[in-house]
Design brief:
alpha/beta; 6-stranded mixed beta sheet; 6 strands
């Protein structure tokens, strides 16, 4: 905790004064253009990967970058998606998986999650991805299964995302675009989903 309080002190002393104008504008203005849905993994930092300023990304982080399909009842992820699309009017939504994902590794290696019932229940939102990977990979090595599951999971979560009414309405109006990314921690590279080809390829700068 000491490191964090020291960090706050450094921010207030060295960083904030140099960016005071930016924070003054942000104090009364919140209009991000992109919703970034990523994993809670501490190694995956959306603003760092995309080199965005404060206020430019609306971020949802969940274990395994999972987005439950729309269902009745209170849901923090659904509420955040609805707010981003319906109120903030984001024009792009990215679902970003990553290499060495603990959630996907647990599923690919069939870890015993008996002692983690909340985790086990949450990971059911990746069932469609597991089925797709199992059908395609057969008896491939574990590393290959994890890598495939990471990508299949991005596809599955994009499909879940489209079931949310706010997203479905925006898609029907061509007011929002969905993107699938995979970030490789070791190399810093990002792959993007080519929806037409149904595969991931190196992200190209616009």
């Amino acid at each position: 905790m000491h490191d964090l309080t020291q960090g706050v002190a450094q921010f207030q002393r060295d960083v904030f004064p140099a960016r005071a104008g930016l924070f003054a504008r942000l104090a009364g203005h919140h209009k991000p253009k992109t919703l970034f849905i990523g994993c809670s993994d501490a190694r995956v930092v959306p603003e760092l990967i995309t080199q965005r300023e404060p206020g430019e990304l609306f971020v949802i982080r969940t274990a395994g970058n999972l987005v439950p399909a729309h269902a009745p009842g209170a849901d923090g992820v659904a509420a955040s998606v609805e707010y981003a699309v319906g109120v903030l009017g984001v024009s792009d939504i990215i679902v970003c998986g990553h290499s060495a994902c603990g959630a996907m590794t647990a599923l690919a290696e069939e870890h015993d999650l008996t002692a983690l019932p909340a985790v086990a229940g949450w990971l059911r939102h990746a069932d469609a991805a597991r089925a797709r990977t199992a059908a395609a990979q057969g008896s491939h090595d574990t590393a290959g299964k994890v890598a495939a599951l990471v990508r299949d999971n991005v596809l599955a979560q994009l499909a879940n995302l489209a079931t949310h009414p706010s997203v479905a309405r925006a898609l029907a109006r061509d007011a929002v675009r969905l993107h699938g990314w995979v970030f490789d921690i070791g190399s810093g590279t990002v792959e993007e989903l080519d929806a037409a080809a149904g595969r991931f390829a190196a992200l190209r700068a616009a």
